[in-house]
Amino acid sequence: MMRWWISALQLLELFVSSLVHLLYGFYIFSTAVAGDLSQSFSDWILKPNLASGLKEDDPENSTSVDGLPPIVLVHGIFGFGKGRLGGLSYFGGAEKKDDRVLVPDLGSLTSIYDRARELFYYLKGGQVDYGEEHSKACGHSQFGRIYEKGHYPEWDEDHPIHFVGHSAGAQVVRVLQQMLADKAFTGYGNTSPNWVLSITSLSGAFNGTTRTYLDGMQPEDGKSLKPISLLQLCRIGVILYDWFDVPWLKAYYNFGFDHFNMSRKKISIWGLVGCLVGKNGPFASGDWILPDLTLQGSIRLNSNLRTFPDTYYFSYATKRTRKILGVTIPSGLLGIHPLLFIRVLQMSQWSHPPDVTPPYKGYRDEDWWDNDGAMNTISMTHPRFPIEHPSHFVVNDSECQPLHPGIWYYKIVEGDHILFIVNKERAGVQFDVIYDSIFERCRKHAFRKTPTMPNEVHHQ
């Protein structure tokens, strides 16, 4: 009898979670459509001279070799860049705070590896090359989207970039920097980690999250999915979305799996069946983002990633829990988005299955209870597992001035996982405080000293 009650509660929780996520997705989509219709109506009424000046998305206008280093904002899971969802901004309009900001549109559910490759070619230009070995192993095309002209083709060690990544976007940038160090891009033999001037993380997914297991990842391997789960519903929806391949819909929002060729124009109904039953596609090969966000997947990634001595690192870890009499609970009702409240509660009570090998030596459940509804706070401060990287906890920004490269400076902010994206009104004054400090740090405190040239040496 007890087993039936547990199963009924699990199905009820799945129904509620699915409904909340579906409604929020519809809200975001409808908000973007309404905003675009309103803008189109205004343009039609006012009839501005659209021919004057250059297009806003023209890469030639994005940055200047002689100007300041660009700041690149990298979105997280289910995110989108400039040009998707119409005029809606993933970063809540933060990109307007500086004249040298780029907001790339990467795959919203593609793997950390694939997104890092896409980000490189978005900046340098050319056709995205996922690598022959990786593409064969994962069952997708080696080549992807073509960027006729990169958004910052001058990018090199003399013209480095500041990166700001939210959630999984922070780990994407770390993987990209390691690829630059490993000279992993064919035809680019001069890449180095010094192409990255600074990395700032907002709720960064450095060490994985226990939420992946609550959503449906198997804690036994961190790769496979539970038969009945939120992620199974997500998987089916994404496959159908890509198979029907409605052009205007895909142009408006894309999960990023075009290189897997799941469109009805490329595979038959039997190909669709193959994807749905798990024989083909990204969910069969594991080349999508959720396996990278499990504790095991993050440890696998981190084992090959370094913190480099000439790059500045800063992170904001978010937390929406507190402890009362030793028990971790959500810190209030009103301050947590409805999309995240259930997960804040569940993550604060997470217990690793006793019959499953812990993800690392010394693992303790209580270390992972503080969270923001999507990520565990311990995961967001700095890379910790399998090896802890140099770090410094910051209470006041003045404590870390001047900044030193090669160290992860981190702050803990009271907020949930989506506090600083999409809707700036939710964050209130904190939105401007956080982003203003990020942009000021990039412009005034994180810089690389230019080496003295021989003809500039002053003889006493």
Automatic annotation (TrEMBL):
Pfam families per UniProt: Lip_C
Family matches, as InterPro entries: AB_hydrolase_fold, Lip-like_C
Gene Ontology biological process terms in this record: lipid metabolic process
Gene Ontology terms, MF aspect: hydrolase activity
Keywords for the protein's UniProt record, in alphabetical order: Hydrolase, Lipid metabolism, Secreted, Signal
Protein name: Lipase-like C-terminal domain-containing protein
All residue ranges annotated as the Lipase-like C-terminal domain in the record: 70-182
One GO term describing the cellular component: extracellular region
Subcellular location: Secreted
